[in-house]
Inverse folding.
């Protein structure tokens, strides 16, 4: 019994460590893309990432709220995304903000393609 519990704890720790590494790799990939593709400075990248991290839990809470209808979720998500983009526009200007939005959209599309490939296996 102790071995089973110890094995489960080990697997949980290993899984947590792997997901932590993937998250760190993902953040670095985003930073690199913002620098190379969108041509932002390090300060701008830090600010954009901070804005994204501020709004991510709010958007996730809306998505996971089972009491809300799909229409309400879409409306509230749109309002939050508009607020987020307004802050990014204030920070970078309209043109660069559009490039940032395009960059993040391309990442999401890439993720969906990767998930589809994983599901095929």
């Amino acid at each position: 019994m102790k071995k089973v519990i110890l094995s489960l704890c080990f697997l949980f720790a290993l899984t947590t460590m792997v997901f932590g590494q993937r998250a760190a790799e993902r953040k670095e990939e985003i930073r690199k893309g913002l620098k190379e593709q969108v041509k932002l400075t390090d300060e701008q990248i830090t600010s954009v990432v901070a804005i994204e991290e501020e709004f991510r839990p709010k958007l996730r809470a809306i998505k996971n709220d089972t009491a809300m209808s799909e229409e309400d979720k879409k409306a509230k998500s749109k309002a939050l995304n508009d607020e987020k983009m307004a802050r990014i526009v204030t920070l970078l200007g309209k043109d660069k903000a559009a490039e940032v939005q395009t960059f993040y959209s391309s990442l999401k599309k890439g993720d969906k393609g990767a998930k589809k490939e994983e599901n095929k296996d």
Q: What stands out?
A: Helices lie at 2-36, 42-64, 70-92, 94-120. The radius of gyration is 18 Å. The longest helix spans residues 2-36.
